[in-house]
Records
---
Amino acid sequence: GAVVSQHPSWVICKSGTSVKIECRSLDFQATTMFWYRQFPKQSLMLMATSNEGSKATYEQGVEKDKFLINHASLTLSTLTVTSAHPEDSSFYICSAMDRGPETYGYTFGSGTRLTVV
Amino acid sequence: LAKTTQPISMDSYEGQEVNITCSHNNIATNDYITWYQQFPSQGPRFIIQGYKTKVTNEVASLFIPADRKSSTLSLPRVSLSDTAVYYCLVGDMVARGFKTIFGAGTRLFVKA
C-alpha cells in the first residue's frame, strides 16, 4: 500500500532556531499533503494543506510565517518551524492524498516529536 | 464537513468483541466513513472504510445503517495490542483538497 515517510522521527532544538521536517510519499505522487500537530492526550489538529506547486493553505490561528510549508515536488512536502520556542514543542504529523480518487485517500507519516529547549 | 461524535473512552478485556459507535448526523451524500487507529507517538493508521451497509476486512468490520447517520466499528477478539485511540472520520474522499478533520477519538483500553 501507499507509504509516507516522515523525517526526522524526533528532534531537539534550542529556542530561537529553525527546524525542518520532511514528508515524502514513497510509492505514489501526492498533489496534496496535510500537516497536523498533536499535543499529549489530544486529537490531531490540522495546521495547513500543502499543495504541490502552489502556496499552502493555513487553518485559522496558524501563523504562516512561523510554520513555513514548501511542496516543491509531487513526493515531498516540508514544514519548517522558524524561531522555535518551547510552546512549539509537539508531535507533528503529515498525511498525503494520492493523486487519483481511491477508496482510502490518506496515508499518514509516523510523526516527528519536536522538543524545543 | 460532517461533525462526528464518539465516546471518549472504552474499556474491554482480552478476547472480547469491541464495538465503537460514531455519530455523524449531517453526513453528506458523497461522504465516506473511515476509521483510523493511533498508537502513542505514531501517526494514524487506516483500519477500514465504508459507504453503506457492512464492510469487513482482516482486522475489523464496519456497520453502517441505512440512514448513514452513525457507524459502528467492530473489533473481534481484542488483544492488549489493540489499546489505542480510534478515530472516525467522515468526508468526501473523492473530492480534491478534502480536509481530514479529526474529532476527539475514542481511547480504547484493553485489559488482561
Note: Residues 35 and 48 of chain B are 6 Å apart (CA to CA).
---
Amino acid sequence: EAGVAQSPRYKIIEKRQSVAFWCNPISGHATLYWYQQILGQGPKLLIQFQNNGVVDDSQLPKDRFSAERLKGVDSTLKIQPAKLEDSAVYLCASSLGSSYNEQFFGPGTRLTVL
Amino acid sequence: DQQVKQNSPSLSVQEGRISILNCDYTNSMFDYFLWYKKYPAEGPTFLISISSIKDKNEDGRFTVFLNKSAKHLSLHIVPSQPGDSAVYFCAASGVTGNQFYFGTGTSLTVIP
C-alpha cells in the first residue's frame, strides 16, 4: 500500500513570495491533516479535512495560509505571501476515520524562507 | 501557549536498560493521549495511545502511564534497543475531538 505522498520535498523562497505544497493521501482515507513543524517544536495542526469539508482550521493563519481538498482526495496548502517565520516542515497526514491514532504521515516538505 | 510539554529535549540510555520519556499537559479537557516516534526525514509514526479512563496501556516493550491528577504521562521502553533511537512526541486530543496538540519532542539515543 502506497503511503502519503508530498511534494516538493524541499522549497526555498524569498519572503513575500508565494508557495504551494501538494499532498496525496492514502487511497480511501477520508480525513486529511496539514501540520506545521517549526524547528525544535512539535507539529502544530493547521487544518483538518473530512472528505472535502473542513473540520477544524482554528490554528490556520487565514490571512496568508489557505488549503483546499478538491473532490475529497488530493490537497494543496498555499502560503501567500510568505514570511521568514513560515520556515518549517509542512507535514500532511491522512486517516481512514477521524481517530488521531490512525494517522499516517507523509515525509513532509521543508520550506526555507529567506 | 504550549498545552503539551516535554521538558527533556534529549535522553541517552544504554541498550537493554529502561527508557522513560515524560510529558506534561495543562488542559484538563484532554481525554486521549498518544505517543509518536519520528526518524529523521520521515513523518511521525503512531506508537501507542491511552484513553483518560485508563492509567496504563501496554504494547510489547512499550508502556504508557497516565496520571490525570498530575496531568502527566510517561512512556516506558523496556528493554531499550538501538533501533529505538528517534525523536518521541507525545500528543493530546480534547473531548470534542477537534483539538490536537503535540509536545516539543524528546530525542532518545540508545547506546549499544
Note: The first strand of chain B starts at residue 4 and ends at 5.
